[in-house]
Amino acid sequence: MTMYVVGHKIPDSDSICGAIALAYLKNQIDEPAIASRLGELSPETAFILDKFGFEAPEFKESYAGENVYIVDHSELTQAPDDIAQATIVGIVDHHKLGDLTTSTPLECWIRPVGCSNTIIKMMYDFHNVEIPKDIAGIMMCAILSDTVIFKSPTCTTADIKCVEALAEIAGIEDYKALGMEMFKVKSAVEGTPVRDLVMRDFKDFNMNGNKVGIGQLEVIDLAVFDDIKAELAADIAAMKNEGERHTMMLLLTDIMKEGSEVLVISEDDTLIERAYGKAPTDGKVWLDGVLSRKKQVVPPLQDAFA
Where does the DHHA2 domain start and stop, copy by copy (predicted)? Predict the structure, then answer.
């Protein structure tokens, strides 16, 4: 039975590129697979796929009765809505273990690295499957995106080595220059509806029974938000009410200054100070050195809910 390889809702580059790369690998080892997606492409992901000549994976929301290989998460809130009616045959991820459960044994590739595509590169090596030039290109870009061109604290030696190897296969001499091109695309926010910006890289989490939404916008200069910051704050407040969330956060991450201004609205006025040691002023707080939602934002927030 053919499996669908799919990432999380509101997919980022790791989720989309990982689905394409893993589906190709599975087909090469006689395990029929189709790459799919749960949402629209971000501008960065569209840039990556266009550069290396790929179409977007199939858009598919319902997976009841299907075999599914999950990429880049293990959270029920980020999975297809009907995942309980599907058979999860595998998970490849680099985040904390979430709350997805299975009724049958499954393949799991979970490593504490900066990107799921780093793990998928390890899977290619394990199965001794040659990586095509175009797939190497999108995998490399996904790793550069997730590791913020190696600046993120989640970046490991494995991520760097995989980028170097994939760049050689893809024929990319200056991969850091390509990474900056990607982040320039991310930084282009003018004319984009505010809700689209908030949802560009957004995930819901279940934290001790509380629904918490965390979005992130990574740019090369926070000045691009000067004229719309009040609108962003108003929209996360609206999303909090619409989704019956306990807390909404939006990280405005400056990859050059290496820190994030966090817009926040919460049922608990002391939550952010307990989590990060700094209290917001007027719904905003600057967290110096914070680039990673996965490693620097979610863990202390979960501890604050415990």
Answer: 179-305
Rounded-to-integer distance, Cα 145 and Cα 43, Å: 12
> Could you give the CA distance from residue 292 to residue 306 in angstroms, rounded to a whole number?
21
Sign of CA dihedral 48, 52, 56, 58: negative
- Residues 285/278, Cβ–Cβ less than 8 Å: yes
Task: Render each residue's pLDDT in the chain as its tens digit; 306 residues.
Answer: 999 999 999 999 999 999 999 999 999 999 999 999 999 999 999 999 999 999 999 999 999 999 999 999 999 999 999 999 999 999 999 999 999 999 999 999 999 999 999 999 999 999 999 999 999 999 999 999 999 999 999 999 999 999 999 999 999 999 999 999 999 998 888 889 999 999 999 999 999 999 999 999 999 999 999 999 999 999 999 999 999 999 999 999 999 999 999 999 999 999 999 999 999 999 999 999 999 999 999 999 999 998
* Calpha distance 142→114 (Å, rounded): 10
Assigned CATH for 194-305: 3.10.310.20
DSSP 148: T
Q: How far is CA 110 from the centre of its chain?
A: 15
What is the residue whose two structure tokens read 């075999």? 67
Got the DSSP string for 228-262?
THHHHHHHHHHHHHHTT-SEEEEEEEETTTTEEEE
CATH topology of domain 3-184: inorganic pyrophosphatase (n-terminal core) (3.90.1640)
| 194-305 and 3-184 share a CATH fold | no
The pTM of this model reads 0.88
| Domain extent listing, the chain | 3-184, 194-305
CA 76 to chain centre: 15
